[in-house]
Structures are given as structure tokens and as C-alpha cells.
Amino acid sequence: RKEVEQDPGPFNVPEGATVAFNCTYSNSASQSFFWYRQDCRKEPKLLMSVYSSGNEDGRFTAQLNRASQYISLLIRDSKLSDSATYLCVVSRSSTLGRLYFGRGTQLTVWP
Amino acid sequence: DAGVIQSPRHEVTEMGQEVTLRCKPISGHNSLFWYRQTMMRGLELLIYFNNNVPIDDSGMPEDRFSAKMPNASFSTLKIQPSEPRDSAVYFCASTRTTSGDTQYFGPGTRLTVL
């Protein structure tokens, strides 16, 4: 079983739409959780960390459910510039900074 | 502050040739990671180092791949001999190994083996 599972999409939504991505992780020892964003032909970059209480950064809201080992990302009022691949990422405190990446969910926002 | 630096950015070579990819991590970071990304397999961790010591190389595909980190500011990934199936984007990333620290990626090396 893969460490992190994501729906690969693609998600195609119009500008202004709300879109949600989900992922699950298999290892209950996972301690830290993130969403990374990767633009076409670019490197992955941190979008936001995910905290147990849930957190928001502008139009982006991340949620964590430790009991279900489930992470979500909600994007409100989608912009054309949100088009990218979104990677669900987890880490464990015992692995010296190693990250476990999902395959990513591709999002295209159209005008 | 400079980010992770990788060179070359693009490499085209013929099957059987040796390829060396280079990485300079962010100053002060003590963990370094080499990844490979393809459409078919996504982002795969090849090997990672902590304080210049290889910690886990289980992702290295086979003996044709080797990686070194002679000091805190430099690492290489070598493929010898290269094969067409090695064509991919190779990323280097670095981080400080405190829980939750962000991993910063370099721009990647796009390798094509003909």
C-alpha cells in the first residue's frame, strides 16, 4: 500500500468555483502534513502546512483528520493561476526530514 | 538567499554514456534528497543524506546509480552507463531536520538519454 494516496484527477473547474482535494496516508506514525504545489515543468513548492485544528491561508483551507488518516485541501474562488498539480505530503519525526509524496492531483481552472 | 542550485538544467546524452548531476543545497541545511520524476511513476525518492551521510538509498534503481555528498555544500548523482529509461527530471532538495521544516527543491535537471 502506498504511503500517501490521492485522487489524480484531473479536476477541470471554471473560475470562481470551489474545489476540494482529498488524500489518505497509511502510516499512523506520520507527524507533519503539507500540501505542495507543482506548476508545469517546475519544481514542487510548499503551499501550506496542515495543522490538527485546520488552517486557512486566504482562499485555501486545509484540514487534517488523524483518526481517519485523511487530509483535505479546499480552494475557494478558483483563479486561473491556481492551475497546477497539488501534492499531498506527510513526514515522520523519525526519518530526518524525509517527506512522503502522493502522486498529485491535477487542477485546471478555465475562464 | 540562494535556493537549491542544480546543474546542468538540461542534459541530452546517448545511451551508455556517464551522466553526472550536481546539487548545492541551501546553506545551513543538513539533509539532502535526490528525487526522480516521470509521468508514469510520479516523484520518487532515490536517496537521502543527513549530515553528509547516506541514510536511505533503497530508492536507487540499480547499481548504475550512485550518489555522493563529500561535504555539506555539494552532492552528485551519477548514472553509469545511462539508458533511455533513465530519462526523467531529477530534483535535489534540502531541509533542516527539525520536525516540520520545509523541504526546498532545486529547479531540476531534465535528462534525456537517446
From the spread of the alpha carbons, the general shape of chain B counts as globular
**Which sheet architecture does the biggest sheet of chain B show?**
7 strands, mixed
Which pair of chains forms the biggest interface, and how many residues does each contribute? A-B, 19 and 22 residues
Range of strand content of chain A: over 45%
- Beta-strand level of the residues of chain B, as a percent range? over 45%
- The structure class of chain B reads mainly beta
**Strand/helix succession of chain A:** EEEEEEEEEEE
Q: What is the first-to-last residue Cα distance of chain B?
A: 37 Å
Q: Which helices and strands, and how do they pair?
A:
The complex is a heterodimer of chains A (111) and B (114).
Chain A: E1 4-6, E2 11-14, E3 19-25, E4 32-38, E5 45-50, E6 55-57, E7 60-65, E8 70-75, E9 84-91, E10 99-101, E11 105-110
Parallel strand pairs in A: 2-11
Antiparallel strand pairs in A: 1-3, 3-8, 4-5, 4-9, 6-7, 7-8, 9-10, 9-11
Chain B: E1 5-7, E2 10-13, E3 19-24, E4 31-38, E5 42-50, E6 53-56, E7 65-71, E8 74-79, E9 88-95, E10 104-105, E11 109-113
Parallel strand pairs in B: 2-11
Antiparallel strand pairs in B: 1-3, 3-8, 4-5, 4-9, 5-6, 7-8, 9-10, 9-11
Structure, described:
The complex is a heterodimer of chains A (111) and B (114). By secondary structure, chain A is mainly beta. Chain A contains no helices and 11 strands. In chain A, the strands form 2 sheets. In chain A, strands 2, 4, 5, 9, 10 and 11 form a 6-stranded mixed sheet that branches. Chain A has a 5-stranded antiparallel sheet with strand order 1-3-8-7-6, with no helix packed on it. In chain A, strand 9 (84-91) and strand 10 form a beta hairpin. The radius of gyration of chain A is 14 Å and the shape is globular. The N and C termini of chain A lie far apart (38 Å). By secondary structure, chain B is an all-beta fold. In chain B, strand 7 and strand 8 form a beta hairpin. Classes of the chains: A mainly beta (111), B mainly beta (114). The interface between A and B is medium-sized, with 19 and 22 residues.
